[in-house]
């Protein structure tokens, strides 16, 4: 037995469209005793907005090859200045740990500010974050020759490299000093390479 009826569906605000729906009951011997078929005007279907895609990650706004470092440390600042001076292709960018712009990078790498104060972070790209001596050598690998050749020190076991790094980092304030605010504010010609430059300038 076949029945047909009209079902009114509101597809667009203030407009009502009619879609004819038919329900047919198959013979009892059929493996699928009931089948529902909906027939609609193609022109009406084109007005139905598509469903949002599932399991699609939001695009990341983080920039690649960003160094997040202690901006009040004289030793760290000197290292940044050196990288800027030899990075003629401008591959590396920087961000002061003390700025708000650093927060999404810390969250992405799963580290706290306290951890980055001890070991700076290099966010190379999606899924690639490095700290301490490995971060330093990965940054160097992006510099032109002959400097990039120093990245060969990655062959040294990480615990040994990091032990030297941690010792220097622990005493850097005593040996080289620190400031109360990001040192780059005193050398604004470098700000072009900082992703947080607007925040730094606005804090003056």
From TrEMBL:
Keywords: Signal. Residues 1-18 form the signal peptide. It comes from the Eukaryota. GO terms for molecular function: protein-disulfide reductase activity. PANTHER family: T23E23.25 (PTHR33639:SF1), THIOL-DISULFIDE OXIDOREDUCTASE DCC (PTHR33639). This is Thiol-disulfide oxidoreductase DCC. It comes from Stephania japonica. The lineage of its organism: Eukaryota, Viridiplantae, Streptophyta, Embryophyta, Tracheophyta.
């Amino acid at each position: 037995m076949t029945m047909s009826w009209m079902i009114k569906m509101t597809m667009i605000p203030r407009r009502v469209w009619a879609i004819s729906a038919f329900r047919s009951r198959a013979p009892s011997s059929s493996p699928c005793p009931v089948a529902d078929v909906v027939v609609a005007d193609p022109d009406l279907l084109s007005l139905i907005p598509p469903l949002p895609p599932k399991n699609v990650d939001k695009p990341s706004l983080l920039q690649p090859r960003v160094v997040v470092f202690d901006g009040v440390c004289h030793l760290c600042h000197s290292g940044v200045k050196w990288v800027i001076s030899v990075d003629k292709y401008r591959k590396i960018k920087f961000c002061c740990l003390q700025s708000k712009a650093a927060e999404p990078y810390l969250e992405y790498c799963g580290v706290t500010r306290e951890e980055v104060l001890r070991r700076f972070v290099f966010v190379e790209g999606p899924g690639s974050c490095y700290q301490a001596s490995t971060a330093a050598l990965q940054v160097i690998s992006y510099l032109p020759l002959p400097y990039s050749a120093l990245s060969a020190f990655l062959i040294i076991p990480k615990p040994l490299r990091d032990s030297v790094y941690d010792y220097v980092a622990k005493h850097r304030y005593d040996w080289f000093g620190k400031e109360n605010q990001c040192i780059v504010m005193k050398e604004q010609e470098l700000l072009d390479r900082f992703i947080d430059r607007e925040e730094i300038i606005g804090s003056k």
